Amino acid sequence: MKSKIMASALALTLGASVVLSGSPLSAKAEVGKENKYIVIFKDQAKLPTDFGIEISKAGGQIEAKLDKLGAVEVVSTNPNFLSQIKKSSTVLDAGIQNIVQPDTAAIEAEALVTNAGPSADLYNSLQWDIKQVTNNGASWNLTGGTGKSVDGNDIVVGVIDTGIDYTHPDLKDNYAYGKSFVPGYPDAMDQNSHGTHVAGSIAAKGRTMGVGPDLKVAAYRVFGPTGGAETSHIAEALMTAADDNVDVVNMSLGGYDWFQNPDYATKDTVADVRLFNRAIQYAINKGVTVVGSAGNNALDISSPGKLSGDDNGATHRSPSSQSMIRVSAGGQLKNLAFYSNYGVGKIDVIAPGGDLGPNYDPTTGTGRDNTYLCLATVPGGYGYKAGTSMAAPKTAALAGVIIAQHGKDNLSPSQVKHIIQSSSDDIFKRGYDGEAGFGLINAVNALK
């Protein structure tokens, strides 16, 4: 991928059951067209008293307020809106709000499940990934191991995704509630399949099992049946989940921001990066462990020039923060999946995300074996998928069962992260490495 594929753009995609299927699109303000912007104020805890007047003077109209993050979503037909609003002494940064269509080439094979029969125990026969994390279910016999808290409180994992099929027989008893942030779609019902698959990896209890089969899942829907999501909607969902006192949030989504000026390569100078960072830190400060997928471009994301080609500048995986838990994807053979991003300082742990087997050639597409994919719930049934989206929720579920063992509100997010890292199996280079981070997650080790 060469030459300016990400100029000032964020690809908000269903980050993870997708592999290398297209470049993100960049957003630009068009003359005469109504454009959406994010305005970030210097005070991140509240909005200035006169912020509405300043935005109006710059030709903008407020569409949504994120008061607790010190930000607003603005629409404007003024092509000079950004240059004018940035002159305000109260504004830290402002930028175009980007929407990019999700990649469409998913690794999935839902039809294969019908071969197992209408009442087969799919966990025992097909869920190698859940068995890998739980040591064949051994972690369920340890205190808190199923996600049932020692203090009697429900441990809730918020799933920021496409929604959840809350009628699914394997999920309905563990479904806490749902909220939608998608305009025109007030229901949190999944119309895609991605979010239901993620939720099943966390808390399914039926023909399939999740890592924590007594955990609760809450849907925070940010994606419609098709298409991408706005930065502000994802940030609002994360902020709302924190206000709802969830224990863990899983974000199997993501994209990239490109910093054109190399002097700013390590600084948060893009508006949506700032907004995501504020939302992540807001959640963590409220005691929420935040987990995210590393992305599926098979690239070293600590060497961002591979994403921005020959252009100057650097690329930032977003949303991402050193305060959250960043997860790469491994296969059944405890290898790094061929599609998974990696990078020193960018990965905390690895978890099973599935691949297409040891004989698969990504170049020719030959040798595919779908049994190496990850099986979980999808609307109306069960399906196979693979991606860092499938790895992240297993880590989020592990965070949930760790919290269940210690009791709600008794561990900080940094303590949960430390337990996950320190209990992981070292599978590649000795010690930390950029492919697996601190190692392959292990629920038995974590709970012992």
From TrEMBL:
Similarity annotation: Belongs to the peptidase S8 family.
Residues the record marks as active site: D161 (charge relay system), H194 (charge relay system), S389 (charge relay system)
Region span, Disordered: 301-322
Chain coiled-coil ranges: none
Keyword Signal annotated: yes
Keyword Protease appears in the UniProt entry: yes
Entry-linked PANTHER family: CEREVISIN-RELATED, PEPTIDASE S8
InterPro entries: Peptidase_S8/S53_dom (IPR000209), Peptidase_S8/S53_dom_sf (IPR036852), Peptidase_S8_Asp-AS (IPR023827), Peptidase_S8_His-AS (IPR022398), Peptidase_S8_Ser-AS (IPR023828), Peptidase_S8_subtilisin-like (IPR050131), Peptidase_S8_subtilisin-rel (IPR015500)
Organism: Fictibacillus nanhaiensis
Domain Peptidase S8/S53 per the UniProt entry, residue ranges: 152-439
Signal peptide coordinates: 1-29
UniProt keyword terms in alphabetical order: Hydrolase, Protease, Serine protease, Signal
Record-given protein name: S8 family serine peptidase
